[in-house]
Amino acid sequence: MTETLKTKNVFLTGGAQGLGKSYLDGLLAKGARVVFGDIDPTAGAATEQELAEKYGKDNVRFLQCDVTDGSKFEAAFQTGVDHLGYVDLMVNNAGIMNESMWEKMIQLNYTGVVRGTLLAYEHMRKDKGGRGGRIVNISSGVGLYESPYVPVYSGTKHAVRAFTTSLAMAPGVNQLGLEYGVLCPEHADTDLARKVDDTRVRHIHLVPHEELAKTLSPVERMQTAFMKLVQLDDMNGAILHVLHDQMNFCKMERVNLGENWPMMEKASSSD
Ligand SMILES: NC(=O)C1=CN([C@@H]2O[C@H](COP(=O)(O)OP(=O)(O)OC[C@H]3O[C@@H](n4cnc5c(N)ncnc54)[C@H](O)[C@@H]3O)[C@@H](O)[C@H]2O)C=CC1
Ligand SMILES: CCCCC/C=C\C=C\C(=O)C/C=C\C/C=C\CCCC(=O)O
């Protein structure tokens, strides 16, 4: 699988800093070519330069892009496709955690991920001239369980996880050549987790700052987990939950539930 990444072209959102930047580094180290979008032009250009110096400028390109702006996101993805020739791996990573800006957070964390997924789906699907590919969406530990500290954020991350695994279980996914995976990290040491206050996270004043700081995993841990996920031989339906001291992997697959599922079975056999 390591060898095949050398021929993989990647589009990733939110890559200027934090976890997205570390995923880019991991992919480039395995020989991939990457295009990344980010809303921040300064941090994006700096990351492009840093990664180009490390891995060669032909292998890295930054595009300024706000994933909540549908037409601009679509245009950026098309520019990425034109630049790379083909996108084999789409990573929808851009996200924020800010409960006081909850509508924006839903637009970014969920609508942005849906849009990025559908753009990649249309590009990759084998029945429309694509050659298949992988779509990895970034959820969170709180996409698997509830949190009173970040209820809206947790809702967006549940939505990302459910949306992604629902697509993984769809009839015809194999024929389309598509595979979907979800990464669910716990706290990691990035700006998103470091810059918490009562506007971003409810009741955070109840949590001692030094206690919170102790729970942050290094970004390298999430990079290792991300690389495991994208290099699985069979990734479709995979959910990787990354905790401080363990990684829990599970796989969602369609099962025949009997009487309630005949319509699904008919759709499956006719597409
Ligand atoms: N840091 C953590 O503890 C965890 C983070 N995550 C998720 O990982 C992803 C990355 O988070 P971090 O690296 O920690 O955050 P970060 O704040 O360090 O980086 C996020 C990146 O997304 C970009 N971005 C923000 N709004 C954007 C927009 N509208 N369009 C395009 N790019 C935009 C930012 O400019 C930044 O470069 C997020 O989806 C987050 O929810 C999940 C679990 C834990
Ligand atoms: C107390 C939570 C403060 C926020 C911590 C910073 C970043 C978190 C980013 C996430 O995506 C959340 C990931 C995992 C959540 C782990 C624990 C949640 C807290 C426990 C609880 O709500 O009871």
How would you describe this structure in keywords?
NAD(P)-bd_dom_sf; globular; 8 strands; binds 1,4-dihydronicotinamide adenine dinucleotide; 8-stranded mixed beta sheet; 15-hydroxyprostaglandin dehydrogenase [NAD(+)]; SDR_fam; oxidoreductase; binds the ligand CCCCC/C=C\C=C\C(=O)C/C=C\C/C=C\CCCC(=O)O; alpha/beta; about 270 residues
Q: What would you say this structure looks like, in words?
A:
This protein is of the alpha/beta class. It has one domain (about 10-270): NAD(P)-binding Rossmann-like Domain (Rossmann fold). The chain is about 45% helix and about 15% strand. It contains eleven helices and eight strands. It has helices spanning about 1-5, 20-30, 40-55, 70-85, 100-125, 150-170, 175, 190-195, 210-215, 220-230, 260-270, and strands at about 10-15, 35-40, 60-65, 90, 135-140, 180-185, 240, 245-250. It has an eight-stranded mixed beta sheet, with helices on both faces. Strand 7 and strand 8 (about 245-250) form a beta hairpin. Helix 2 (about 20-30) packs across helix 10. The longest helix is centred in the middle third of the chain and has 23 residues, at about 100-125. The radius of gyration is 18 Å and the shape is globular. The model has no long low-confidence stretch (mean pLDDT about 95). The structure holds 1,4-dihydronicotinamide adenine dinucleotide and ligand LO7OFUQM. 1,4-dihydronicotinamide adenine dinucleotide binds next to helix 2, strand 2 and helix 8.
